[in-house]
From TrEMBL:
Keywords, comma-separated and alphabetical: ATP-binding, Cell shape, Cell wall biogenesis/degradation, Cytoplasm, Ligase, Magnesium, Manganese, Metal-binding, Nucleotide-binding, Peptidoglycan synthesis
Keyword Cytoplasm on entry: yes
GO BP terms, alphabetized: cell wall organization; peptidoglycan biosynthetic process; regulation of cell shape
Binding of Mg(2+) 2, residues: 306, 308
Described purpose of this protein according to its UniProt entry: Cell wall formation.
Gene field: ddl
Single GO MF annotation: D-alanine-D-alanine ligase activity
Organism, scientific name: Peribacillus asahii
Protein name as it appears in the record: D-alanine--D-alanine ligase
Cofactor note: Binds 2 magnesium or manganese ions per subunit.
Amino acid sequence: MKTKLGLLYGGKSAEHEVSLQTAMAVIKALDLEKFDIYPIYITKEGAWVKGPQLTAPVENVEELAFPNGSQVAPLSLQKANETNEDGYDVLFPLLHGPNGEDGTVQGMFELLNLPYVGNGVLASSAGMDKVIMKNIFAQAGLPQVKYTWLIRSEWEANREEVYNQVEAELGYPNFVKPANLGSSVGISKCSNREELEKAFVEAFQFDRKIIIEEGVTAREIEIGVLGNDHPACSVAGEIISGKDFYDYTAKYTDGKSTMVIPGDVTEEQYAELSKMAITAFKSLDCSGLVRADFFLTKEGDFYINEVNTMPGFTPFSMFPLLWKHTGVEYPVLIEKLVQLAQERYEEKQKIKYTV
Ligand SMILES: Nc1ncnc2c1ncn2[C@@H]1O[C@H](COP(=O)(O)OP(=O)(O)O)[C@@H](O)[C@H]1O
Ligand SMILES: [Mg+2]
């Protein structure tokens, strides 16, 4: 029996184009002997459009948007069964950021009782909010840089006092970030009061809540985690940013950043890192996958920076490359994720809903 796999991509998100690239690569990697592929394109406006079943790889991204496809109500998606020709066995959201990685689409799948790849509602939403994520990590005993946070109205009520407090608590340099975004959007590094003031204005454009962190000089080491109840770690990798920090242009446009895989860490450091990554995975109740990102200081201390619950997933992104170097090729990684989705779904069916 072939697995009916629904691929969701595009989305009302800054990462729309990245998502299309990912979808092309995933389609190409899928074994058509094992999978029937059903595309669901989410337009930039947020409409869901069903394309026809794909029976061959797609050559260019335009083919992934179906101008004549039928628009569907997301809530009409169904699970496949003997009588349902139109259903799915598993859905794979190839979406990043708000509306894709933040628990909203995951919540819909839960309501519809559909198996889906990756993290559930709780891990996705907690992982999307940097403040909540850091609070949970703190509780799990994971080392982090010092941080503080606030909402817009608190800042508007008394800006001077807020700046004074940030300076007293964290000093310079520090990083100001919207709480609920990714891809470094809205993030500034500040070295003085003037930059701090600008950074607040900038970050509050993207969110009503921001986080401010002590800035550290550190290498950036990342590791992939894969699994459900018994997650495994990939080799470690290092990001070497061509810029002052790994900002939006460094990530997507200027091509000056490089990935070193495996990263230059000692066996002891790897042991410490993988232990921390698993702790982070478990503390947020993750499932399927995460990429855990760390700072490694000159002194040799690790701090967890964040986890990404739907990390970049093109074949040239860090997460798939980490697994490739660990011995799990891209097509195998995709199959593994689908299998993990099905296992989690089966596990969930054991729950009893009556007393
Ligand atoms: N506290 C910090 N100290 C030093 N560099 C930081 C700090 N926070 C963020 N950075 C830099 O900014 C980049 C983006 O920050 P991050 O918190 O990872 O946001 P995003 O979720 O958008 O990836 C990091 O990869 C790193 O280069
Ligand atoms: Mg990051």
